[in-house]
Predict the structure.
Amino acid sequence: EVQLLESGGDFEQPGGSLRLSCAASGFTFNSSAMSWVRQAPGKGLEWVSTISGSGDDTYYADSVKGRFTISRDNSKNTLYLQMNSLRAEDTAVYYCAKEVAVTGEGIFDYWGQGTLVTVSS
Amino acid sequence: DIVMTQSPDSLAVSLGERATINCKSSQTVLYSSNNKTYLTWYQQKAGQPPKLLIYWASTRQSGVPDRFSGSGSETDFTLTISSLQAEDVAVYYCQQYYSTPLTFGGGTKVEIK
């Protein structure tokens, strides 16, 4: 059974940093690209970032480019999102999502339960 | 960026009746070299993460009931629930994966009339 367990969400002040983690199990981790998708309270879904199965290729939404860094440790079956220079508009539930393909095609077949990031002064 | 526009924002349908959700992309999401349409549909129930229903515009994900179907091409797409069940109450999102940034529609809330 595929399981994705996010952690690291917290309350942070504007300009601060947080690191999200997503522990994966139940599938061959390095055979799947992984992504972060966020959802602001009461709002729709917004793609944040994707990393290929090998970790060689990364992609970012313009809204987070230069501030967020996606990475993975295939030896630990864990996905990360380093979030720097946080803004109020980054407040959201952050979902870790498994992709069908190794190269990051954009089809998310499994999602974690999400972790809440709140940015406020 | 490809803008995805869903309609209606919400709809109420009687149990057993058909529900139809529309999604329009600002440019084609049909890749002519492989004739594949880069569009998915997700279902999100209250307090839960999204669940993949349909990909390649019309391919049902394993385990998804056959009352859910996707259709359309190029820029206009439809998700149909042929006979609404109580457990189908949710928000439904379309998403294009033709190009980055990946983009979602604003969502359509489906309720029971």
Notes: DSSP finds no helices and 13 strands in chain B. Residues 69 and 80 of chain B are 5 Å apart (CA to CA). The interface with chain A takes residues 38, 40, 42, 44, 48-52, 55, 61, 93, 95-97, 100-107 of chain B (CB under 8 Å).
